[in-house]
Amino acid sequence: MRLKPGALLRFYSLCGILIQVAATKSRGRGSQGQFPLTQNVTVVEGGTANLTCRVDQNDNTSLQWSNPAQQTLYFDDKKALRDNRIELVRASWHELSISVSDVSLSDEGQYTCSLFTMPVKTSKAFLTVLGVPEKPQITGFTSPVMEGERMQITCKTSGSKPAADIRWFKNDKEVKDVKYLKEEDANRKTFTVSSTLDFLVDRSDDGAVLSCRVDHESLNSTPQIAMQVLEIHYTPLVKIISSNSWPEEGQSIVLTCESKGKPVPEPVLWTKDGGELPDPERMVVNGRVLSISFLNKTDNGTYRCEAKNPIGRNSTEYVLIVHDPNAFAGKTGPDHALIGGIVAVVVFVTLCSIILLGRYLARHKGTYLTNEAKGAEDAPDADTAIINAEGSQVNAEEKKEYFI
Fold first, then answer.
1. Ramachandran quadrant class, 46 (left: phi over 0; alpha: psi -120 to 50; beta: rest)
2. d(CA 318, CA 105)
3. Which of the four pLDDT bands, split at 50, 70 and 90, describes residue 28?
4. Dihedrals phi, psi of 353, to nearest 5 degrees
5. How far is residue 220's CA from residue 240's CA, in Å, rounded to a whole number?
6. CA distance 167 to 178
7. 290 vs 305: CA distance, rounded Å
């Protein structure tokens, strides 16, 4: 006769009670040192959980595992619950180990190991089931994006237990300023989490890789990642590069117009002083390059390079100054004209000085009448000296003294 699972369960439970009562008198005192030992178990959804119950001192007393619903799973080595996922690992007087494969979230809860002494001793083991987050999805992304526009993209993942953590990266550098939202799923056991990245795009973001990374303890340190490459459209950036930093007459020069934009700019436009290039024979445009041969002073001016794409246009200028090679060479040697001028000035100043000195000496050359000639030496007073001086004018020529 085949027993139903419920009847079989009651039978094993009754057997356990009878064994317990029969062994009470003979082992009552010795059973005081017996106690079952268990450990909590954490397993990822879909994995296998191993539940182990050990007794260090056991005098042939039965062990039993029960699930959170208090249904007997195993009584010693006897399987009580018909569930193909549950298997016996080891059964002895000192250990009862079972395994539960393909664990689901509904298997989570408190499992009980019972040692049928008098009274019955139990030990609890909590089975924690981790919900694996789904692969993240990025939404709200549009491509291409115009420079200066605001971008809002969201990364979402569901089914995590506990709630997963989401982080954003731009070219492997973490972005901190993000919004995070956690919501409970319909099963009231797992969570859906999302994170929104909000920023203004710049031309430097073109080609950047945005990564949404989901971290969770069920992933064994291997995060789930969703990536998106940015494509930014922007107006051209223009720059002129000259092949000659000191162009001279007779030489040539090459001006290269570098333009970077997205989409790629159209062929550039070269102008001089706001108009067309005046000498097409010497001024040749090849793509982005302007070549001017046999430079002369008429080539001086402002050269403009303009580039455009569907987003916009931009330009830059280069001022060309053609130098005289002779004037440039004179700067490196002595200036003979300047030296000659300085010598002429020195000679002129010297001659002027000689002429002025001669005139001065001629003007101050003359006679000097001594006191003897004026009669001052023999005069007793001033009046007599004056009279004597007047009377002695006749003989003044005899007493002249000259200064040279």
1. left
2. 72
3. very low
4. -65, -40
5. 54
6. 8
7. 10
Angstrom distance (rounded) from CA 327 to CA 138: 68
**Which parts of 97-222 fold into alpha helices (H)?**
none
Q: DSSP class of residue 332?
A: T
Distance from C-alpha of 328 to C-alpha of 245, rounded to nearest angstrom:
14
Which stretches does DSSP call E strand in 176-223?
Answer: 179-184, 191-200, 209-215
Q: Which amino acid is at 145?
A: V
Question: 290 with 270: CB under 8 angstroms?
Answer: yes
The length of the chain is: 404
Tally of CB atoms within 10 A around 397: 9
User: Which of 98, 97, 21 has the alpha carbon at shortest distance from 61?
Assistant: 21
Q: Which has the higher per-residue pLDDT, 341 or 395?
A: 341
- The reported pLDDT for the residue numbered 174 is 95
Q: Which amino acid is at 225?
A: I
| pLDDT tens digits along 117-173 | 989 999 999 999 999 999 999 999 999 999 999 999 999 999 999 999 999 999 989
Q: Is the pLDDT at 393 greater than 50, yes or no?
A: no
Residue 9 has pLDDT above 60, yes or no: no
pTM above 0.85, yes or no: no
Closest to 42 in 3D by CA, of 107, 98, 87: 107
Cα gap 11→83, rounded to integer Å: 18
CB atoms within 10 A of CB 330: 14
> What single-letter amino acid sits at 353?
S
Task: Print the SS3 string covering 327-373.
Answer: HHHHCCCCCHHHHHHHHHHHHHHHHHHHHHHHHHHHHCCCEEECHHH
**C-alpha distances in Å from residue 122, one per residue of 125, 127, 198, 303:** 10, 16, 55, 94
